[in-house]
Specification:
Layout lengths: L1 H21 L10 E4 L5 E6 L5 E8 L13 H8 L9 H10 L3 E6 L4 E8 L2 H16 L5 H18 L3 H14 L12 H5 L3 H11 L6 E6 L3 H12 L22 E5 L5 E9 L8 H13 L5 H8 L7 E5 L7 E9 L3 H18 L3 H18 L3 H13 L10 H6 L3 H11 L6 E5 L3 H6 L5
Helix pairs in contact: 2-8, 4-9, 10-13, 10-16, 11-12, 12-16
Length: 453
Amino acid sequence: MATNMNMQWMFRAAFALMLLAVTHSAHAILPIEHWRTSAGAKVYFVANRGLPMLDVSIEMPAGSAFDTSEKSGLAAMTNGLMRLGAAGMSEDEIARRLADVGAILSNRFDSDRAGLMLRTLSDTKRRNQALEVMAGVLSAPVFSSAIVERERSRYASALKEADLTPDTQVNREFYRLVYGKHPYALRSSGEVDTVSRLQSDDLKAFYRKHYVAEQAVVAIMGDITRQEAEAMAEQLTRALPRTIGPALSLPEVQSLPAAVNRMIDHPASQSHIMIGAPGIRRDDPDYFTLFVGNYVLGGGGFVSRITEEVRQKRGLAYSAYSYFSPLQVRGPFIIGMQTRRDQAELALSVVRNTLREFIDKGPTEQEVIAAKQNIVGGFPMRIDSNRKIHDYLALIGYYNLPIDYLETFVANIERVTAADIKAAFARRVDPDRLVTVVVGADQKQTATAAPAR
């Protein structure tokens, strides 16, 4: 164990130094190879012979955005139950076979995508057994009625408990108001009543429609050759269902027609606040500009304006932040914080004024220089491990980002200007058309809040 830890530390240190040396080089930082399997799946691969490890994932358009309001939670349950019986293996046998070789098989799930990820040692015997289990889970999940009934009850109980918390309430209401009838409005875990109605046949039908080879993205990172990676990708995808009908897609997100304010009473000692609106797609041309700009606004921790105004100057919240969450279509722009109930109105006023001033005037040149220096200086830490690189491979593949995304990351950050940021925020964030949700509002605020429109 100590030897493996030392090897990992040495690899990370050497890799970080190498990246620092080549950040401004014209040469590729990472030799990413990509191809398609015979079944049509996309594959992205990076070889790293420095550690005897292997990370493999496969993802499809099977996230919560592909749910319906009547069966909200179906995508999450389908993904979660794949490992609970497949290809003639019981859930106990799947767990035992993975444990025997020290492998970890986990679920990957968000609004857009869903799948599985495997981490295993790269020697032939161990990885072969782990990959055999993964392939079986991917291609032949059982979704037995007994397992579905058991897990359905467990999911519903967890949802009932979560529904009482202010965090859950503020998130549910925020996404509902921002996205309306768009599937991004649906809670990823589903609702108690919808989950309680799900049946085995629902999961089987969702699996056959969404876990298809032609729309799969395989990401492989680790101690193997290109030839071995090709064989693995074929093994994982050749028995998957095939596409029936047109490729899966999501509807476009509509902009908010007006501001919406919702104050919700809750016995919590603090008000939980979310402010925002539809933001940007993952492939938006303004992505890097908004990334740098948001670092100045609320993404840079103690050096951001929102933290400075809300926490440092006035002590209204321990944490106040903002971020863009780009997705297949327009993911949200969010400002969040928690504050004492009697300070919520003041905190909201400070945040709104800070945002409006930022949009009207933009950041200063000094703020932009400092933000770019911090982002560029921290870039090597974004890719200092197999896991982080692997996650970028999956991201690049699923969202069809340029293959040189990592190679050009620093250059894209460095070319951003203060004028670019001001223009991009003016295009993407309208301070007069934002959703504001406060859970745990004062009685007075609840009574006088502007009605939702």
